[in-house]
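Subject: for your reference before the review

Hello V.,

The reviewers asked for a structural picture of the protein, and I figured it would be easier to keep everything in one thread rather than splitting it across files. Below is the amino acid sequence we used in the manuscript, unchanged from the supplementary table.
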Amino acid sequence: MLKKAKKLVFKYRVYILGIFCLGLILDIFFNPKISDSIVILLIVFWLINIKNFKIRPTQTLVLAASAYFIAFVFQFFNKEVIMEKGASWFFVFLTIALVQRIIEEFSKDDKED
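And here is what came back from the structure prediction:
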């Protein structure tokens, strides 16, 4: 059962990435409310993408920098909701990149032993 689920997720990984990208854009720019369930769902989609595409922590940091850039730019246009969402996604992706890096280092140490 688990192998079937993994194969299914791997088969539709491009669609999962598209849903994540679309959901992130919709959440930042078009959703005026902050919804924890949407954030958690998008984080799960991003974690699935990390596993399927073998995304490195530096690529997650690029996504964090993009979210920070959005927050920085929209600060000048007095768009507080977009600015806050960009900043919160910045910290989410920064945390994910940090955890990715820690896991990568521990797995590297296990391989050397």
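For the response letter, the relevant points are probably these. The longest helix spans residues 80-112. Residues 2-107 form one domain.

Happy to draft the paragraph if you're swamped.

O.
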